[in-house]
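Example record used in the benchmark description.
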Amino acid sequence: MAPFPYLEASMGFTLCVYVFETYLELRQYKLYQISERPKDLRHLISEKQFQRAQDYNADKAKFRMFKTVFVEVESFLLIMCLVYPFLWNGIPIWFGVSEDSELKRTLIFQGILMLASEVKGLPFSLYSTFVIEERHGFKSQDLTFGLFFSDMAKQVLLTTIIGAPVMSAIILLIQLGGEWFYLYVWGFLLAFQFIMMFIYPTCIQPCFNKVEALPEGSLRTRIEDLASQKGINFPLKKLYQIDGSLRSSHSNAYMYGFCNNKRIVIFDTLIKQSTENEIVAVLAHELGHWKLSHTIKNLCIIAIQMLAMLWLFSRFVGNEDLYKAFGFESTKNATFIGLMLFQSVYSPIGHVIGLLMNMWSRKCEFEADEFAVKLGYAPSLRSGLIKLQEENLGTMVPDWMYSAYHHSHPPLVQRLEAINAAGKKSD
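Model output (structure tokens):
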């Protein structure tokens, strides 16, 4: 029996995805050319902000389409010219590493790919930050080239410090775990995920942003009162603000922590752009995610998805036909190569799961909005969402297909309609 054409199937699927996503991008780009506000936005968004959002998103769309062409052509050439097998086979020769030393060989190979990715992505990052974001008023004056490259160096360093031991552990677990290795790797990745949920905001984010306690005042008092409110009982231990304005005027807020040790972090840009009522309403929405167990449910979904993916990988890790289709001679001591090639097998499944996760995420957003409405924050949540849309220049006229495929949050108008309906039920 002829071997399955993994290479042809992978390239064919990638081409189909590119064509489909370009079609969606063009559908959405056409809507960015609308200069007149749709009827349902005229009483919500000013004409000036509407046009700013249209121009900003049109610029980003053109940039994305150009970048995607580059990435797809580059990926095609790397695969068809057998660059990956060339690098993998050359490492023992160039670096004096034994072919049987899988860990060293893998870490060198991974390091080469990471550095190459940083170099290739640098022009796009520079253009996005210093042209598009600056043109539309998002780049902070404090974000200099020095700070940009400093951030980049920190990211590479942290990725190396964290990524190398994690990849080494995964390879060792696969080598020593036998046919049940996927269970051990799954348990390790779950533990790592939980550890990173604590380490990132406490140890990593301070490397990039100034994190300090939210000053005493009415805003802090109102947030603490909201968290302790009957029916919520959020175990808030720390309340922080970070200087997001150091790099961008985009705004955000998030929560993290385990069990009875929860923390809330608010960007200073959100504080500057919104009223206290709006900030509290937005946080009521975020607390709704916690109270309705959306975070726990998402972690469970991710855990199940990860286990299924690792089990499927265990069926392919020794598949010589897969390796040979992409130019690799043997599966021996090439676990990382197997992981890399497995992405081509998993890609169709990943796209379907991504679409389903968007649908699930939108459902959660509507439920969290309704939770905030039931607490009496409907007017402030409405105005807060409108202001966030205006200040962040979000998509004003989303194409339904593009939005369903790419966006994890419902369009603004749909959320406002749902808030109005929930408000009528609460009255």
